[in-house]
Amino acid sequence: MISIIITHSPERQPYLNRMLLSLGNSLHSLDHEILVSSEGSKSFCRNELAKKAKGEILVFFDDDVEIRENTISELLMPFDTFKNVGVVGGVNVTFPDASSSEKLSGRLLSLPFVTFKSSSRYTPKGTPRETDESEIQSCVMAVSKEAFVKAGGFPLDIIPAEENALVNSIQKLGYKVIYNPFAIVYHRRPKLYREYARTMFNYAYGRGLLIRKHKGSLKMFHKPSKDWLKLTLGVIVHYVSYISGLIWGWLRG
Questions:
Q1: Fewest CB atoms within 10 A around its CB: which of 147, 154, 157, 182?
Q2: Separation of alpha carbons 212 and 204, rounded Å
Q3: What CATH number is associated with residue 86?
Q4: Do 112 and 235 reside in the same domain of the chain?
Q5: 21, exposed or middle or buried, with CB in 10 Å at 0-12, 13-18, 19+?
Q6: Domain co-membership, 232 together with 143
Q7: Strand 85-94 relative to strand 140-144, pairing
Q8: Structurally, how many domains does the chain consist of?
Q9: Which tens digits make up the pLDDT trace of 168-214?
């Protein structure tokens, strides 16, 4: 049995309605329960709902996502194909009907030289594999209830990086963390520029708390590949060379 846990704010009811409609299309014959709450902060609600949950696996979704037909089955699959799995995370992609501003934000988040390893949160990459918290987000995440309880649930002292701390704690307990690029939901994006800047500030603020309180790492710069470093340097060389030549030609002309 699985327990689907959703928290929401009353003013976001239209988003929740859309989400629940898509959820109904993806459950098929799965033995499940759906738990929804709007009492308190997101992580507080999730912790409280998890206490009431009857399922062996807790599936977390944000209230503003839309779920594909195979999303839940893809989140559950690694629990059967890998040993000792604690967490499975999927991918949240931009809505096809999003505004142009949201689509630009989505493109930024998906660029490896902007978000590095975490770019796979926003665009599917590779095949199901072991990973760490840098590729996992709680808007599309399944957790073994056993692992969740042992880790103590979402810590409430480092919001908004509580999901990262939870995944780290579960991994330290010896459970595997799996990224599945085929478990996909559509998700809202912050609009450029003010909303995007505020969102990035909050992400970085949470990362700072994680580093200070839970000995986390600066995942924004997590092991960028040599190819992407070379490509980024190539882009810099390209524009510096081109602009220099343009100015020099203009001056000589």
A1: 157
A2: 12
A3: 3.90.550.10
A4: no
A5: exposed
A6: no
A7: antiparallel
A8: 2
A9: 999 999 999 999 999 999 999 999 889 999 999 998 888 888 888 87
DSSP string, 121-170: GTS--SSSEE--GGG--TTEEEEEHHHHHHHTSS-SSSTTSHHHHHHHHH
Residue segments in the chain with a per-residue pLDDT below the cut of 50: 220-222
**Residue 221, pLDDT score:** 45
For residues 193 and 148, state if they share a domain. Answer: yes
162 with 240, same domain: the answer is: no
Per-residue model confidence (pLDDT) at position 237:
85
Are 164 and 205 within one domain?
A: yes
Closest CA to 131 of 189, 184, 91, 73: 91
**What are the pLDDT digits (tens) for 67-77?**
999 999 999 99
Mention every residue, 6+ apart, whose C-beta is less than 8 A from residue 87: 136, 141, 142, 143, 144, 147, 167, 170, 171, 175, 176, 177, 178
Per-residue pLDDT at 118: 92
Residues 6+ apart with CB under 8 A from 248: none
* 220-238: b (≥16 Cβ within 10 Å) or e: beeeeeeeeeeeeeeeeee
- List the structure tokens of 151: 């880790």
What is the full DSSP assignment across 174-197?
A: T-EEEEEEEEEEEE--PPTTHHHH
